[in-house]
Amino acid sequence: MNIVNKDSKNTFTRMCIGEAIIKLLKDTDFDKIRITSVAKCAGVSRITFYKYYESIHDALCDYLNIIIIEYLEECAKNPENGSFLDYSHILFALEFFNRYKDYFLTLSRCGLHSILINSINNFMSEHFTNPKNYSEYRLYCYSGGLLNTFLKWEENGCDCDAGEIARTLEELYS
């Protein structure tokens, strides 16, 4: 088996685990979810779960990291989106993360915002260690503001056009 297929299979398995946790969170408090339930819902063994994770929290963090990696890959394929503060990039981000709204809204509803904000902060520190054109605080303000705005937009049932939100955020950060 070549490495690409192995990585794809691993990613698929990890995503199944993450999606199973999200499904379980709709009916069960986070603290009451057990690895056995996650494994059964994901269609994997407990051994497979423990191959990747030590805890359910770790699995949720990893699921967001998988989403962020996919986001970065799509960003790289679409250089026309420009700088992350540009309208086109903000619009792209809103539309991309909308695909995973169930994940974001479920974590928000369950009070697990720390997973979201910590993952975004880790992303910012890993990918923007020496920002050339932006202060570190501006980057964190942007990413936290985008997350909070995205969550509110989703909670409101996407009550306005993503382009309208992108224009508002671009004006705010320009």
TrEMBL record:
Keywords carried by this UniProt record: DNA-binding
Keyword Flavoprotein: no
DNA-binding region: 34-53
Listed PROSITE patterns: HTH_TETR_2 (PS50977)
Coiled coil location: none
Domain HTH tetR-type: 11-71
Protein origin, superkingdom: Bacteria
Gene3D superfamilies: Tetracycline Repressor, domain 2
Molecular function terms from GO: DNA binding
SUPFAM superfamilies in UniProt: Homeodomain-like
Protein name, as recorded: TetR/AcrR family transcriptional regulator
Organism: Lachnospira eligens
